[in-house]
Amino acid sequence: MDRLEALDAWLRGALGGRAFTREPASADASFRRYFRVFSGDRTWVAMDAPPEREDCGPFVKVAGLMRAAGVHVPEIVACDVGQGFLLLSDLGRKTYLQSFDGTNETALFRDATAALVRWQLATREGELPPYDEALLRREMNLFPEWYVGRHLGVTLDDGQKQDLETVFRRILAANLAEPRVFVHRDYMPRNLMVSDPNPGVLDFQDAVLGPVSYDIASLYRDAYVSWDEDRVLDGTIRYWEAARKAGLPVRADFADFWRDVEWMGVQRHLKVLGIFARIHYRDGKPGYLDDTPRFIAYVRHACARYVELAPLARLLDRLEGVQPQAGYTF
Known about the structure:
Layout: H1 3-14, E1 21-27, E2 33-39, E3 42-48, H2 57-68, E4 76-80, E5 85-89, H3 96-99, H4 105-121, H5 133-140, H6 142-151, H7 158-176, E6 180-183, E7 192-193, E8 200-201, E9 208-211, H8 214-220, H9 229-246, H10 254-281, H11 292-305, H12 310-319
Antiparallel strand pairs: 1-2, 2-3, 3-5, 4-5, 6-9, 7-8
């Protein structure tokens, strides 16, 4: 019996024998698949997470934590962790990314910020894995391994490796100096649904306990849409003000918090460059590499603001065959 046959058999039991139909709902960068399930006038979403590839246990746990925090996440109607099948309530079809129309962004981001603050306020030690130095570094190492080595076909020389290591240490020092809260880890418009209450939050199974700036950096330095600097700055200020009012451990001075956000963003951008290359070459999923120029631009933007990141800017120049820009010094 293949996965879809097994899923249908399980759904028949989960739905009490009611007749149903299903259609693909979405896929993501992992090995999970989602199907919208129809029975009568009701719909659900079925998750297929092959247990040899994916563990849906964290999804179940984090869903409970987020729901307890007052965040709108799918309800788990039925669950078989052993087979990797979940039946979830349906939060609708419109993501934030699909809904942006030039007039509603401020309101949608306001709701996303409020939900993020509720999630962070629920932080408790010992509930989620730590976003520690080992994990942060392992993620950044995807950049030289998959983006530089596999995608660009470049082998770094000893000097370039040392430059990159110097930058990695600086980034890690900044990230690890931040206060720790619950971190969704992919809090971006593609994973936020327009719903009531708004937003509905998806793709939270990789949540960790980590730097307080991570999720707001993810929200505004998005993988699929770039915002002008005024919107990013305004939205980050609005989050910072709400977080301070709620008693979250953000920096007392916004300039210091902004630096945290930008340095946290660089860690994430390097990780995503590596992940998108790995998805393409290892997992055979095309399309992700089309968005890598956006992340290169994000990294360059940060490098232009902080002299400590100059070795990374110079490395990007060399990788892209670009002459070093004036002002990049060591």
